[in-house]
Amino acid sequence: MEATENTQLVKHNEGVTPRDYQVELFQAALDDNIIVYLPTGSGKTLIAALLINEKSNEVTKSLNAGGRRTVFLVPTIVLAIQQAAYLRNHTCLKVQEFYGGMGVDLWGRGKWQMEFENNHVLVMTAQIFVDILNHAFFSPYQLNLLVFDECHSAVKDAPMRQVLTKLHSCDVARRPKILGLTAALFRKRCKPREVHGIIKQLSETMGCVVRIPSDIQTVYRSSTKPCEVVFQHDDFDTALDPVARELSTLVQSLLLSCRLVVQNSLQHFQADGLWNPYTVQNTGKTDILSDAIKDIAFLLENFGPYGAFHCAQVYIPILETAKMRVRKVSDFNKVITLCYQIREICASFFANYSAKDRLTVFVQPNVIRLLDIIRNFSPEHCDPGEKTFKMCCIIFVERRSVASVLYHYLKDIRVHDTTLEFVKPLFTMGQAAASNATLTESQILNMKQKEIMRDFREGHCNLVVATSVLEEGIDIPECNLIIRFDKFRTYCDYVQTKGRARSVRAFYCILVSRSDTEKLLEDLAQFHSIEQQLVATSNIEEDKDAILDNMFGQIIEPYQPFGEEGPRVTLQSSISLINRYCSQLVSHGPSVLVPTWNIKEVDENLIDPLLLQRIKELVKRLPIPKPPPNQAATVSYGLYQCRLLLPKSSPLQEEIVGEPMPTKRLAKRTVALRVCQRLHMLKELDDLHLLPVSHRNRVMQ
Questions:
Q1: Residue 115 and residue 110: Cα distance in Å, rounded?
Q2: Is the dihedral of CA 532, 533, 535, 538 positive or negative?
Q3: DSSP conformation class of 447
Q4: Cβ neighbours for 242, distance < 8 A, ≥ 6 positions apart
């Protein structure tokens, strides 16, 4: 498919000009199904918007008239709302988001047919689309484009993977175009040497080629680059106040004495088939009694007696309500009694301290260290020239119970500690957040996530405590402080949380105990190694193509009209320069101008014999893979020729034809290098740096 300059790629009133690497990847998406791998904050969604608009003529017709639709899949509700808003602002199409809170689980075929008829682009969480396909409410043959945001989620039996499985059963010729977007490529914990195999597996699952720009350094100049800082704190319990340690020991003994009772109760409930509906998300089908014990014990160890006190207090009304739904209540009464005992014994210790002191004495060292970090972002600590500075912070935690406790703790301490009164906290824990909540807490949690994020963006709240619901894709441009409160498990956790720091001057702070510091530094070194490995490969592709690109890159001379000391355009930088030139051309309409590439395979009998001989000699130097038994070892290759036509705003209107090459990317690079030479001769590239002459400079000349 070719890109034309008349396509309305983005709304004119948005004033958005794609960067050259975004145009490059957009063009790659026109030719193939691809996974766009870019760092967080580098504009992956704009590439999707460009592609959606390029194919907009297919979705504006009625479905009955042969029209098709674009579906944009996301892993979370927050992303559904955000990405739908983005596409409305960057396309001229009808865009609508869909998620569970809208009651879509109860919709039938008629309702969904109406939504697909009335909208051009439908943004939804992946599970909703799985249900639509499973119930045949919509045919996959009516899709023109399927976008997978955070496509590294398409693993195992995840909803995105189920959608792909359904597509694989369709006729190949009638499948929609697929575009994947990700900043992580994989979720699982792995070693650097395993990266290539994991990426290859994702690529095969999605039927896509993984692509990143040819000039990766340009991307990193435009993406998230927070200052990464590791903050040590003393080990748990060892630095606790003696009184707090005594209280912890008492609470611990109460928990241990109750554990056997809970284990027995589990057996009774299993036998009776009385599983309680109040189940903590992501812990499996465990009984609520076990959940209560585990949460209180975890918070005691990782937050301190304050955490255990708050958690026990939250569980009392939850257990009382759950008790009414079972026949055997004695076990519930024992755990409820445990919660009352913990609350009362903690309250008796707390009573000997002031409101402020109890918030610092009865917490673990990691909490105290967290407060130190937050204080550094107080308006009083900003430079004299930064009077408009405002903290915009996200604290990431693993467990929902920790998010709840930390929110209440910050809300309490800001009242009693004047150095923290500038903190205005909220928290979000995902779709099932309100299951373990007090009445007051439920009022906050039942706010739509859209409203929470709106308050955060507008400054009504300057700190959000969040679980993984905010890790992926959420864009808060002013976010200048990310704190990782708990350990991260995988490279994906590291990349996604770090990527939320979008401000120009942002910090990514990691809390770690002294005893765990060495392990954390090893993990960070491994993550950095993985990061470098991913960007160093430029595009994740077949080894044969990569070797050929490298060979020709060394043989084909760069364009350097002023000698070795002057500026030059290389084979590798030529495509990027063409995209940059086109993005700066004057558009006479609402569209973004892009070049038109036309690549065709050519017969070797039709090309220059000397060039063909040269190509064959280079191909002979390729490593030959081990052949199957009884077969000769050979290396197969095609020959591709690329034609390049610039937009009408350019004075170069001749279609330029490149030399035949053994890979598509080499064919594009060679013709791009030739066009760069012609543009310089036409004074469209300057002499000083061989960069595009701006429209303003051309007018002045």
A1: 9
A2: positive
A3: S
A4: none
Helix (H/G/I), strand (E/B), else coil: 221: helix
Q: For 627-675, write each residue's pLDDT tens digit.
A: 455 554 444 567 889 999 998 889 999 999 998 888 888 888 899 999 9
Cα-based distances in Å from 259 to 248, 315, 627 = 16, 16, 61
CB atoms inside a 10 Å sphere around CB 454: 14
Beta strands 121-125 and 95-98 are parallel
- CA-CA distance, 124 to 111, in Å (whole number)? 15
Could you list the beta-strand ranges (E) of 553-690.
Answer: 596-601, 640-645, 656-657
The total of other beta-carbon atoms located within 10 Å of residue 613's CB is 10
Structure-token pair, residue 451: 């409203």
CA atoms of 395 and 463, how far apart (whole Å): 8
Which DSSP letter does residue 442 get?
H
Measured CA to CA, the distance from residue 641 to residue 200 in angstroms comes to: 28
User: Which residue shows structure tokens 């209280």?
Assistant: 247
pTM: 0.69
Burial class (CB in 10 A: 0-12, 13-18, 19+), 458: exposed
- What are the pLDDT digits (tens) for 168-187? 888 888 999 999 998 877 77
Local structure of 427: helix, strand or coil: strand
DSSP string, 593-606: P--EEEEEE--GGG
The whole-angstrom separation of Cα 25 and Cα 34 is 9
Cα dihedral 372→377→382→387 (10° resolution): -150
Question: Across the beta sheet with 121-125, what order do the strands follow?
Answer: 95-98, 121-125, 69-74, 143-149, 177-182, 34-37, 209-211
Pairing mode, if any, of strands 640-645 and 596-601? antiparallel
Cross-strand bridge partners of residue 599: 642
Which backbone phi and psi does 72 adopt, to 5 degrees? -115, 110
Gap between the Cα atoms of 494 and 492, Å rounded: 5
Report the C-alpha gap between 435 and 415 in whole angstroms: 27
Cβ(96)–Cβ(123) below 8 Å: yes
Phi, psi of 187 (to 5 degrees): -95, -35
In angstroms, what CA-CA distances link 209 with 37, 169, 539?
A: 10, 20, 9
- Token duo for residue 233: 């704190």
Cα–Cα distances (Å) from 662 to 13, 342, 614, 671, in that order, read 42, 73, 11, 14
In one-letter notation, the amino acid at residue 377 is: F
Assign 246 to helix, strand or coil.
helix
The pLDDT tens digits for 65-124 are 999 999 999 988 888 988 999 999 999 899 999 988 788 988 999 999 999 999 999 999
Q: Quick check: helix, strand or coil at residue 16?
A: coil
Q: Which of 503, 497, 532 is nearest to 395 (CA)?
A: 497
Identify the DSSP state of 541: -
- The token pair at 401 is 């119970």
What is the number of other CB atoms lying within 10 angstroms of the CB of residue 306? Answer: 27
- Spell out the long-range contacts of 268-276 with Cβ–Cβ below 8 A and sequence spacing 24 or more: 268/328, 268/331, 269/326, 272/327, 272/328, 274/326, 274/327, 274/328, 276/322, 276/325, 276/326
Give the whole-angstrom CA distance, residue 315 versus residue 405: 12
* DSSP class per residue in 77-145: HHHHHHHHHHHHHH-SS-EEEE-GGGTGGG--HHHHHHHHHH-SEEEEEHHHHHHHHHTTSS-GGGEEE
3-state secondary structure of 483: strand
